[in-house]
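Predict structure. Chain length: 444.
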Amino acid sequence: MIIDEGSKKIISILNANGYKAYAVGGCVRDALMGKPSCDIDIATNALPEKTAQIMTAENIKIAETGLKHGTVTAVLNHNPYEITTFRKDGDYTDCRHPESVFFVSNIQEDLSRRDFTINAMAYNDEEGIIDLFGGKEDLKNGVIRAVGDADTRFNEDALRIMRALRFASVLGFKLEEKTKKAVFDNKMLLKNIANERIFAELLKLLCGDNALSVLDEYREIIAVIIPELEPAMNCGQNTPWHIYNVYEHIIHAVDAAPKNPVIRLTMLLHDIGKPSVKTTDKNGKDHFRTHAQAGEKIAYEVLKRFKASNEIIQTVTQMVKYHQSVENVDDIRVKRWLARLGAEKTRMLFDVRIADLEAHNPAKIAYEINKLKELKEELEQVVESGEAYRISDLAVNGNDLIKIGLQGREIGETLNEILSLVIDGNLENSKEAILSYIINKHNN
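Prediction complete.
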C-alpha cells in the first residue's frame, strides 16, 4: 500500500465524481523510501470550488486554505489532506512566487513545474506511479536532480537552493552535476528570499545525517545566508588543541552534536566570534580570548535577521556565551550551573561543550569529555533527588523571613545567600537550621 486509506478515500470520491486525482510529491517519495509522511498532497483536475463541494457532500470537513492557488484542505480522521487543482505557474518576478497560476487539465503539466525529480511523481491505485522525469531512478541512486532546466527552476524559486541542500543532508543524497552547478551559479538569488523561510530550511539541514558534508561542500551557500561565517572559512587555529580551521571545527562540532535543532544551531554559531578576536603571539600560537562574548553578539544579530523566536534567540546566545565557561571541567559545580540556567539548559550546555570538544584535537579531549559525561550523570542525580539548587527549593520562603523581621531588599539578598550556602553544603536545607543561621547572623 503506497498511500494511506485517507488518500485512497479522497481519490476514490473524486474519481466517482468524474475527476482524476493522485497523491503527489513528497508523500510518494517517502512511501517509495518506506518512510511515513506527515504531509499528504493530492492533485486533481477538479477546480477548487468543485472539490470543496464534493467533499462537503461526503460530510468531509474542509478548509478553504488556498483557493487562490487552487488548494482545499480536507480533514479526514483528524489528518489534513491538501487537495490542489492541476496547475502551471505564470512568470516569476521575485524568485519566489508566480505572478499568476493557471489551472490545467492533466497531471503531466502539473508535475513538470515541480522542483526535483524525486518530488515530481504521482500515484493512484488505478494507474500506479506516474514518473515522467526519472524520479524513481534518482531515488534509487540517491540523486537530487532538478526537473527540466535547473537554472530555470532556481530562478523561479530560489528557496529551492536551500531545499536541495536540505534534501542532500537529510536523505544523504548527492546533487546531480548540472543541478549542483546551478546551485552555485544562482546562490545570490537567496538574497531575494524571506529570511524566515531560509531559516526553516537551515534548521532541517542541520539535523540531517549528512549535515557535515553539505556544510562543507556548499560553504559558499552558507556564506550567502550567514555572511558572518565567511571569515571563519579561512581562519586558521594554530594551537595544540585544534586540528581544523575555525569553520571546519564548527561543522565537525555540528556533526558531533545531538540532533536537536537548537543545539545544532548553537554549534553552527558557537565560534562565529573567533575571527574578530584572533591574535597570534610571538611564537606563532593563535589565541581567541573573549570569542564567546563576541560570538554571543554576532549570533544575536544573525538570529534576529532570521526572525527566530525569542526562545531560540535567548537559548542559543546563552549557550554561545557560556560554552567556554565550562572549559575547566574540574572546576565545574553542577548545582551552580543548575542555579544559573536550570536543568534543561544545563544539560544543553554540557551537550554543547561535549560536541565542541569532539571537534578538537582527539589526542587532547578524552579526559574532558569523560568528566563532562560524569557531570551530566551528577546533574540527573541532583534533579532526581530533589536537592536544592533554586530558591524555590529552600525550606524557607520570603514569608518566613518577614516573620523574623527581615524586609525589602534584605529578603531577596538573604535568600540568595542561603541558597549559595546550601548548594556548597555549608548549611543544611531545613527550616530550623536556616532560620537559626539568619537569627544568629543578625544578632551578631
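Summary: The two ends are 81 Å apart (CA to CA).
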